[in-house]
Amino acid sequence: MQSSLLISILLGAALLLAGRQLFWLFVAAVGFLYGLEFAPSLFQGSSEVLQLVIALACGLIGALLGIFAQKVAVALAGGLTGGYLAAEFAYGAAWHEHFPVIAFAIGAIIGAALVLMIFDWALIICSSLAGSALIVPAFHLHQTEGHLLFAVLAVVGILIQAGLMHRRRVVPVTAE
């Protein structure tokens, strides 16, 4: 699925660099990520184009929610991101056979609570994690290298967005 990989990389890069400023893009990307993940299973045997259209439709729904229902959309995106990451962790720890729903639910609750309590920082962290999750699969790395790249990208995204947030809050002093 070449076109979806390119879109994933571009969305991931945008989230890493500007996820907090473009929170609607964060919500759209989370919708796209879920659409991309589940479209092949829900529509088995369908074309790659149809699967991409479904993923894009999920992203569009997320973007519209992000624009018109900001807090709800961001809490939902934070919950889905937290759930996704917890489920991936459970899968990596070989707990997926016993706890996939529980891991997802706990991650979703934590993710939603985080974005509502510490909105800016949660958006920075969640969008950086989501951006990393969109980019890493494109490289088809072994598990260890994939985890390392995920962590590096997430940290770089957090640092870039934190720096941008800090710059916007610092008011330059002018001499009179």
Tell me briefly what this model is.
The chain has 176 residues and is mainly alpha-helical. It is 81% helix and 0% strand. The chain has one domain.
Label this structure with key terms.
7 helices; 176 residues; mainly alpha
Could you characterize the architecture of this molecule?
With 176 residues, the protein is an all-alpha fold. It has one domain. Helix content is 81%, strand content 0%. Helix 2 packs antiparallel against helix 3 and helix 6 runs antiparallel to helix 7. The radius of gyration is 17 Å and the shape is globular. 41% of the residues are buried.
Count the beta strands. Answer: 0
Question: Helical proportion?
Answer: over 70%
Shape: globular
Overall SS class: mainly alpha
Number of structural domains:
1
Contiguous runs where pLDDT drops below 50 for at least 5 residues: none
Biggest β-sheet description: none
Distance between the termini: 59 Å
SSE sequence, one letter per element = HHHHHHH
Gyration radius, in Å: 17 Å
Strand content: under 5%
| Average of the residue pLDDT scores | 83
